[in-house]
Amino acid sequence: MSTALKIAIGSILIGTAVLCLKVFAWWITGSVALLSDALESTVNLATAFAALVAIQVAARPADANHPYGHHKAEYFSAVLEGVMIIIAALFILREAYDGLMNPRVMDAPLEGLLINGAATAINGMWAFVLVRQGRRLKSPALVADGKHLWTDVVTSAGVAVGVLLAVVTGWWILDPLMAGLVAVNILWSGSLVVKESLSGLMDEAVPDEVLTKLRDIISTHATGAVEAHDLRTRHAGSATFVEFHLVVPGEMSVFDAHEICDRVEAAVKQALPDVQITIHVEPEHKSKHTGIVVLD
Fold it and tell me: Domain range holding 104?
């Protein structure tokens, strides 16, 4: 079982525990704000299941129908997470509106806050693990899940402050008002998750620092070639796709040209382990004199 898969399963177990704690906190208090926090945790659990499925699909090897692999499955999961976050926010807005129209006194607010605080602490620690490991494993689904979980931590802290103020001041309308603010924050975070995921589905190029590294590797390891041009990149989950044209002297043998390609591929794969490279070899008269200069 891969590390990413183990982490995804861990998210389901932790999400279930946190949801139970938050539902209990809402049940003993009747707080609309704590209900909004619990509703967001139902989305956390659902998206953890979605991430698990996506990681399993993305790990499948390439086949006849999917020659480039199944890496983009994780982006679909991340988009689904964003959509579900937005749906949760709309439900919370509805509950907040009802609370504003009919504000009510909370029962056992301090006990509820303590229980909710414990759930928030668990979420905070796990969000850190998800984002850190997701970036290390180049897993968009885990990173999106971690970022979503972190918004839950932030909003839970805001909810706690709002509920505490309502208890201290006796202004019970602060409870649904805080729930409304939580919903707006969740809407914003959901839109960001969708935006980041769509960039992967649209074959966005690798970051500038990775592109610079690739150009340097080609320049220093393609000795014997004339230049490289039309460098194109894209990323899909943990995989990075690189392709470019390599110009060699017209009299160079196929064997020697292939040796240069092998040398460049080995260097790129050492820098980017999960990379797929396509090199198109061209004779010298195809030079554009605007690409990557190969160092002697």
Answer: 3-201
